[in-house]
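Protein 1 of 2
SEQ + STRUCT:
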Amino acid sequence: MSWLQLALLAAAMAIALSAIMAVAWQVQRTTGHTGWIDVCWTFGTGIVAALGSLAPLEADHSPGARQIMVAVLIVFWSLRLGGHILLRTREVGDDPRYRDLIMQWGANADLRMFLQLQSQAAVGLILALSVALAAHNPRPNLGWQDFLGIALLVGALAGEAVSDWQLRRFKSDPANRGRICEAGLWSLSRHPNYFFEWLCWLAYPVIAIDLSGANPLGWIALLAPACMYWVLVHVSGIPPLEAHMLRTRGERFRAFQARTRAFFPFPKG
């Protein structure tokens, strides 16, 4: 992939993701349920990244084994996470993080939400480009880095699925209403699902980077895990969710914060 091809692919992806998040903005306005935002973002990012992976950069070029492999990986990620969010949205409708923002923004909520979702399209673009760079790595054959990337993604998806299942099972018990989930992985981290989501995005740089130096563009794929860490830990992941938990759970959640790590699932020494 040349710089020109990367720029053209990025432009096409940016337009598509911007349009998808504009639709997400309209859907949440029409339904009144902010949970649909992340449904649209997850499926939209997955579709755009998969198409970018399979895009022919040369005339009469059919997708190679690495392109197909990476496209399958991102579709698998999108279906797993998107399906989970879809089920949650059908049950509860709202995402407290977005609802809190709408309440804060007041009369300017519509415009501010539109701009917020366009910023999420920009995040999706960084992730989709990382996927495309992995898919278009010019290494002729699949090698150990490709298989390491597969193992990393599958392991991360499994960890995220287990985290989501443990939380869902905890919430399904009426006796746990108002309590804090500390079951399984949630005893090691306040947000193990976020940790494993971040870990998913490390798989693509592993596939994209050529240690021989033959594919310098592959190093750009490191932006994906860096961006995802920043978003989850410092922007729209942990900060607003924990602010909501402190408002609704109070000292019980504050005590949980004191004895548990926020992100990395390791015992707090």
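Protein 2 of 2
SEQ + STRUCT:
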Amino acid sequence: MSADGSRRFAANVHGWLLVLPAAALLVLFTHYPTVATFLRSFFSTAKGARGSAFVGVDNYRQMIDDPIFWQVLSNNAYFALGTIPVSIGLALLMAIWVNGRIAGKGWLRLAYFTPTVLPMIAVANIWLFFYTPQYGLFEQVLSAFGVPAHNFLGSKDTVLTCLIIVAIWKEAGFFMIFYLAALQQMSPNLAEAAAIEGASRWHFFRRVTFPLLMPTTLFVLVNAIINSFRLVDHVVVMTRGGPDNASSLLLYYIYEVGFRYWDSAYAAALTMVLLALLALFAVGQFLFMDRKVHYR
């Protein structure tokens, strides 16, 4: 081997050794559990003296015949449609506002970002107080206007909407940070040139600002979809999936099946469906938005 070849080989080995700790952790805590869960979904759950046995796709057949699974999937779809566009749109509006020349914008940024740093359990307990029948903040305000008392978290018609409001309040500030960082990277010459040409603020936003924000929008959208399918803390604290599974989401249902009913095999099959949905959404976003992300 030549001297140049030896140096290149040593550099490659050195690079792989630097990557090895992170790669080992990734395989150990991400890839291996995924493969193990996939294999587990084709076996039955061991109960007592009866060991686990290979059952093929029986767990997936059970899922198709499970009405609670379809209700939970429908709840999660409604939850995603309610949280994703509103939280992203609100984050963009807040970022544009606090990026401008306004008094006290530092405090505004802090106020918008504060819900993000609060623990999920703390947020759930705060909003649980807001929604408490008769004594909650919302009940006190509505009663002042003569509106009759209503159990927001105890009604099938309003419980999921209440969770959507909490999720938007928690996530909008987090997404705002990414939009704010992207806006601060944009050259001020673009706005000056548009002003010279007589372009309105709306035209400048639609033709220049928003297209330049598309990479950030794609990143935020992927995270928003993942967040909408991994919410479980708020459900555990505020509703426990009730009433009558009206607020049960897919990840919470997996938690219930696996740790309340101890059916680990069926929980593994549900987990694979969740992973498949997230992968499908992610790939679809990159394929559909790839031509719109890179602005020329």
